[in-house]
């Protein structure tokens, strides 16, 4: 009888030690952990494209973050860019053919790859009240200013006015299908998005 009690105590001790060892080897499910790879910083803060206002936000953020794919997601597949008339004449070779989403993709790839090397890059957008273009479509007028350049070099300033036309797809996603660019004549020595597109096309 005594032997049986001692045997039970020994088994209980062995089981207790085994459980303690296993618990020590496990991670505490409630403890915080340090990730192996820290999250990337400086990414674009992209919103669901459920309104023209959110698409405008995504346009500004994608340019600021130099994010090519987020930038291209702003535009519809049938997107058209219409440059300022002065830019059409000055860069006739670039704009004599229609500027489509395909050409916008080429421009974005070239420009953002170059912009990754720039030490200064800032974006300012002033948006004005929207107006209804057609049912399911909206137009925004906004003034933009984009400054970029390398340290020690003169900065390039883009400044102008754009009319952006938005439409809602069958999936509820809004995109820009037409960008009509305008030069602001009162601002001297400033480029436009049209000049930038011609330069990096």
Please describe what this structure looks like.
It is globular, with a radius of gyration of 29 Å. Strand 3 and strand 4 form a beta hairpin. The protein has 201 residues and is of the alpha+beta class. It has one domain (52-199): Roll (Nuclear Transport Factor 2, Chain: A), CATH 3.10.450. It is 37% helix and 27% strand. Strands 1, 2, 3, 4, 5 and 6 form a six-stranded mixed β-sheet that branches. Mean pLDDT is 75; it is low at 14-42. The protein has seven helices and six strands; from the N terminus they run αααβαααβββββα.
Short description:
The chain has seven helices and six strands, in the order H-H-H-E-H-H-H-E-E-E-E-E-H.
Q: According to CATH, what is the class?
A: Alpha Beta
Compressed to H and E, one letter per element, the order equals HHHEHHHEEEEEH
The fold-level CATH name is: Nuclear Transport Factor 2, Chain: A
Number of domains: 1
Q: What is the structural class?
A: alpha+beta
Unreliable sequence segments? 14-42
Strand content: 25-35%
On the 0-100 scale, what is the average pLDDT? 75
Globally, the shape reads globular
- Looking at the overall shape, the CATH architecture is Roll
Number of helices: 7
- Rounded to an integer in angstroms, the radius of gyration calculated over CA atoms is 29 Å
Percentage of residues assigned to helices: 25-40%
Biggest sheet, open or closed, and with what strands and sense? 6 strands, mixed
Query: How many beta-strand elements?
Result: 6
Task: Lay out the secondary structure.
Layout: H1 2-25, H2 52-64, H3 68-72, E1 75-82, H4 85-90, H5 92-95, H6 101-115, E2 120-127, E3 131-132, E4 137-149, E5 156-168, E6 174-183, H7 193-199
Parallel strand pairs: 1-6
Antiparallel strand pairs: 2-4, 3-4, 4-5, 5-6
């Amino acid at each position: 009888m005594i032997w049986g009690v001692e045997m039970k105590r020994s088994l209980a001790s062995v089981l207790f030690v085994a459980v303690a060892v296993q618990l020590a080897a496990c991670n505490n499910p409630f403890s915080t952990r340090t990730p192996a790879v820290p999250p990337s910083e400086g990414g674009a803060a992209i919103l669901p494209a459920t309104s023209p206002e959110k698409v405008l936000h995504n346009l500004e953020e994608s340019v600021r973050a130099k994010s090519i794919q987020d930038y291209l997601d702003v535009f519809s597949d049938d997107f058209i860019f219409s440059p300022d008339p002065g830019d059409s004449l000055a860069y006739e070779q670039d704009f004599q053919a229609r500027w489509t989403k395909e050409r916008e993709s080429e421009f974005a790839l070239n420009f953002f790859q170059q912009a990754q090397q720039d030490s200064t890059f800032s974006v300012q957008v002033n948006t004005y009240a929207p107006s209804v273009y057609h049912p399911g479509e909206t137009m925004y007028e906004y003034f933009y200013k984009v400054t970029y350049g390398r340290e020690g070099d003169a900065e390039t300033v883009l400044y102008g006015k754009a009319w952006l036309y938005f439409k809602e797809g069958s999936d509820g996603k809004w995109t820009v299908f037409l960008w009509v660019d305008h030069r602001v004549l009162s601002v001297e020595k400033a480029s436009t998005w049209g000049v930038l597109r011609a330069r990096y096309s």
